[in-house]
Amino acid sequence: MRVILEVLKGPRTGRTFIFDRQDTFVVGRSQFVHCPINDAALSRDHFLIEINPPRCELRDLDSTNGTFVNNERIDRTRLSTGDLIAAGQSLFRIVVESTPPLPNRSPSSSMAIPTRDAIICAGCGSPAPMNLTVNNVVGAGPDEPVEWWCSACRAEVAALPQPVPHYTMIRELGRGAMGVVYQARHNGSGKMVALKLIMPETATTRAAIDRFQREMSVISQLRHENIVEWYEQGASRGQFWFAMEYVNGPNLEALANIDPGRYPTDQGCRLACQILKGLEHAHKRGFIHRDIKPENILIGQTDEGSVAKISDFGLAKSFRSVGLSGLTFSGEMRGTIPFMPPEQMTDFRTVRPQADLYATAATLYFLLTAKFIYDDPAGGDDLIKMLLEEHPIPILERRPNVPGDLAAVIGKCLSRDPEQRFPDATTMRRALKPFC
Fold first, then answer.
1. How big is the chain by its Cα radius of gyration, in Å?
2. How does DSSP classify residue 104?
3. What is the pLDDT of residues 169-217, one digit of tens each?
4. For residues 342 and 83, what is the distance between their CA atoms, to the nearest angstrom?
5. C-alpha to C-alpha distance for 174 and 165, rounded to whole angstroms
6. Which residues are annotated as catalytic?
């Protein structure tokens, strides 16, 4: 299953871009977007397409001259095969393939839609709509079994704690874009755990579910004092569940807001160094978190003092990479983008460890100032443009009593160019160490 973007007219006529998995694609005049076009009629970042084959959605990024779909100016719209997108001098066409192309067949040829058994809700048995979009993964067959939950059953599942084998729910700890977390007790051992429940946003094939669980099984093998430990995982009533180490303390976001803008710089740097120790361990084993932010840093207590623990390691990447999160930014705008490096917006799948360093610096910045690195990121398309175009506000403008050398280290880590940041977590930790 693929989405194809063909350039029919303009400076890049003849180019074809093919997407076989979840991705984002930005067109504009800037050299940093996916499809840079030398056209004065385009804005630097003109429009963005979010793709989760076969679904794709276009957002105009507040461009000066507008983006037109089938001759109608739009702000945001779902795209279908054959739709024509006009921006500046360029014209694009969307083609959605439901099966791989046959030999000698062009991408724009009509494709037969494979038949499958009727899809019904796994909760109540009601039939799925005829136009239901089904998420699959690359390499899986078109006849894969599908799990789908209707809106009524999804609402019921979301409203009430779902039973998870061998665990008893105690209380809700928090809700976010990546699901709900409960404090729970393992019935056999009596051990206290944090139990995270996540429901896919789309109708999903068994192949996609299995791939997600395999990826998480690999990542869950990480063991480090500054990484929340994963115990086991499974699925119950359409939700994935993950039993994790229970950390009896606040997350870093709550810590920053206890006395906003006055958190001691030495303690903040000490926590940042602990985060970097956890990242050192993961990066050496080939894992990148991709979603470091204050709410994903839990603060526990030991005899030696506060200890930072990274939670949800790899969860956002794996959930998104197999298409389970629906379209890309449906629920993660405000919470994630203020801590996301620009290159992650334009190439989520191949980001390097420097992306985690940027996010760690943005998290430390928030801890010390209780403010984001940008001014008032309200959300939506303005927030995307902010990430793609603007430079962070220097931390000394937020909190003048931060040591100048520390401000320089944080500024270096927040460079828009990954090559200008520290090369690895070890080097960044050494640069922060004098301020602990």
1. 23
2. T
3. 999 998 876 778 999 999 999 999 999 888 777 777 777 778 777 878 8
4. 29
5. 21
6. 291
